[in-house]
Amino acid sequence: MTQPTTIRRVRAPRPRLLDLFCCAGGAAVGYARAGFAVDGCDIADRPNYPFPRHRGDALAHLAHLIETGEIRRYAFVHASPPCQHGCALTVGTNASQGWGRTHVDLVAPTRELLDASGLPYVIEQPNGRAQIRKDLTLCGEMFGLGVIRHRNFELGGWTIERPAHVPHRGRVRGYRHGRFYDGPYVAAYGNGGGKPSVPELQAAMGIDWTDVREELTEAIPPAYTEHIGAAFLATVALGVAA
To answer: Name one GO molecular function term (predicted).
Structure first.
């Protein structure tokens, strides 16, 4: 009797993404949900980062990957260079955690190396900080989150449709000039002035793998990069990425 033929489906490997200045992985988790395998790099120890990571200077690591040709393992690069140019944090445990060092302008050298890599990329920055092209601006209200947290993204080597900004439903909860305001959003920064608890921050941001306040306040919601990653993979599938 002839045995039925067994068909084995071979799953294609996930495209690999390099996550520079990765912190605790807010961006990384979004990209993983979109379909990427993610490797991180940060100069500070990030034990809560949920994917393989290299501890070291992000730009030196990127330069090494380019020089050795290992960069070809990757299909895409995300970079979130520190935005606190000109600001030195020295209070409390910041110095020992990696947040308390004098920051230099890293956006321009990051862009230069990313262009040299030949890979499509994203550079992420908050509003009002380093000068980048604002090819895309996202906020929590676009994804039904409990934070506003506007973030700008410069896209290198590819494009994305810019979604319309969604009007905010109210204020950010907390004190302003001695007066307390209630609202549907929490403030994902700082400690005082009616700031949210860590569980409130986790719920508002959609982040549950770290309970370190400083990591939560530095992170971007994974919903942002899930949107970006899915859009990029769609352009690849359509054959329109540069």
So the answer is: methyltransferase activity
pTM here?
Answer: 0.86
Burial class for 182, CB neighbours closer than 10 Å (0-12, 13-18, 19+): exposed
Cα dihedral 8, 14, 15, 17, rounded to 10, equals -160
Cβ atoms within 10 Å of 126's Cβ, excluding its own? 15
Domain span holding position 228:
16-160+219-238
Q: How many domains does the chain have?
A: 1
User: Is residue 182 a part of any domain in this protein?
Assistant: no
Cα 48 to Cα 212: distance, rounded to the nearest angstrom: 9
Which tokens is 13 given? Answer: 């490997």
* DSSP string for residues in 140-170: GGGGT-S----EEEEEES-----PPPPPP-S
pLDDT per residue as tens digits for the range 14-52:
999 999 999 999 999 999 999 999 999 999 999 999 999
* DSSP for residue 138: E
